[in-house]
């Protein structure tokens, strides 16, 4: 009577194949989780820049300060800097606002123009 069983070689081969599949799958999920966190922080940074622009748009034109201001802000658990640069073109009564949010090694930048009414 012949016994049917796996040899050690077959077992090791199956073990290696399953290990490679598990390592590849876990690497995929790790990279995906990292991208989700980065996307979330980028979304928060965009909203912080929009918030500053909307605040300046709601301010009287003559009260919008020309120059550069830097603020330390928090986005979730991440510390960042919000840099606001306002320049004025007096020939057409127009102020250009650039808001940049910088965190870790990333940044976003939004710009708008505000006209004197």
Short note summarizing the structure:
With 117 residues, this protein is α+β, with helices and mostly antiparallel strands. It is 44% helix and 35% strand. It has a four-stranded antiparallel beta sheet, covered by helices on one side.
Architecture overview:
This protein has 117 residues and is α+β, with helices and mostly antiparallel strands. 44% of the residues lie in helices and 35% in strands. It contains one helix and four strands, in the order αββββ. A four-stranded antiparallel beta sheet has the order 1-2-3-4, with helices on one face. A hairpin with a 2-residue loop joins β1 (67-75) and β2 (78-89). 9% of the residues are buried.
Give the integer mean of the pLDDT values.
92
What best-fitting shape do the alpha-carbon axes yield? rod-shaped
**Strand elements, count:** 4
Name the assembly state. single chain
Gyration radius, rounded = 27 Å
- The number of helical segments is 1
SSE string: HEEEE
Bin the helical content: 40-55%
Report how far apart the termini are.
99 Å
- Name the CATH superfamily classification: GSPII I/J protein-like
What's the topology here?
Layout: H1 8-58, E1 67-75, E2 78-89, E3 94-103, E4 106-115
Antiparallel strand pairs: 1-2, 2-3, 3-4
Jot down its keywords.
117 residues; 4-stranded antiparallel sheet; Pantoate--beta-alanine Ligase, Chain: A,domain 2; 35% strand; alpha+beta; 1 helix
């Amino acid at each position: 009577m012949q016994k049917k069983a796996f040899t050690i070689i077959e077992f090791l081969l199956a073990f290696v194949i399953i290990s490679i599949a598990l390592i590849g799958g876990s690497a995929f999920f790790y990279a995906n989780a990292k991208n989700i966190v980065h996307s979330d922080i980028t979304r928060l940074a965009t909203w912080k820049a929009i918030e500053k622009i909307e605040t300046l748009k709601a301010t009287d034109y003559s009260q919008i300060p020309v120059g550069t201001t830097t603020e330390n802000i928090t986005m979730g658990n991440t510390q960042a800097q919000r840099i606001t640069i306002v320049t004025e073109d007096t020939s057409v009564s127009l102020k250009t606002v650039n808001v940049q949010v910088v965190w870790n090694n990333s940044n976003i930048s939004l710009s708008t123009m505000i006209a004197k009414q």
